[in-house]
Amino acid sequence: MTAQDPTLPTPAVIDFAPAARQVAQLLEEVGEEQLLAPTPCEKYAVHHLLAHLVELTAAFRDAAGKRMGPTTGTPPGGAMPVLGDDWRARLPRQLDELVAAWRRPDAWQGTTRAGGVTLPGDVAGRVALNELVVHGWDLARALGRPYAPDTAALQSSYELLEPTEDDPGGDGIFGTPVDVPRDAPLLDRVVGRAGRSPAWPAG
């Protein structure tokens, strides 16, 4: 584990529990007949999205513990994710493990790896939380269910997705942002920055 530089401020720990709880509640709504339904993720049906959630919860759980290996070293993309038969037991368990892993202050310190990329711990934590927030919205929309993440998680995602000088188009994580009014609800502005239309599937 890489030691935290004592001259640097200690990164703030953000509780993943509210975001993970929302996703876990949505999982209970998924029937077998909905696995083939479309989602706001282009090319992803619900079963692809669930498989991606299985992969990312394992990857960012291990990233928090600085456990380097296939889960943290494999870049995203390539083949479409495949949903295992055990997902109904495995995904809720991994959501709980993810929450516990990022409650440790040392998870946010030093450096780690996720998706084959070396990142500061605090950046990896914010990316992991953002994945839960945005993909939770994807799943809720696909199922036609309400979705209301906590303000701390939404604010973290909004700041993470803010365009930078190196990526002025904001295409770095999810895709080209969708224009959303500045006075729109924060959730709409987050998903817009994540390349989704808040009106999906209508727009």
Protein traits:
single chain; mainly alpha; 4% strand; disordered N terminus
Question: Could you describe the 3D structure shown?
Answer:
The structure is a single chain. The chain is mostly helical. The radius of gyration is 16 Å and the shape is globular. It has seven helices and two strands. Helix 1 packs antiparallel against helix 4. A hairpin with a 2-residue loop joins strand 1 and strand 2.
Itemize the secondary structure elements and their pairings.
Layout: H1 17-27, H2 46-64, H3 70-73, H4 87-101, E1 111-114, E2 117-120, H5 121-143, H6 151-160, H7 186-193
Antiparallel strand pairs: 1-2
Helix pairs in contact: 1-4, 1-5, 2-4, 2-5, 5-6, 6-7
Kindly report the oligomeric state of this protein: single chain
Helix content: 40-55%
Count of DSSP H/I helices: 7
Mean pLDDT, nearest integer?
90
Rg: 16 Å
Strand arrangement within the widest β-sheet reads 1-2
The SSE string, one letter per element, is HHHHEEHHH
The share of residues in extended strands comes to under 5%
Which secondary-structure class do the elements indicate? mainly alpha
The largest β sheet comes out as:
2 strands, antiparallel
Which shape, going by the Cα principal axes?
A: globular
Poorly predicted tracts of residues = 1-9, 167-171
Could you tell me the number of beta strands?
2
Q: In whole angstroms, how far apart are the ends? A: 45 Å
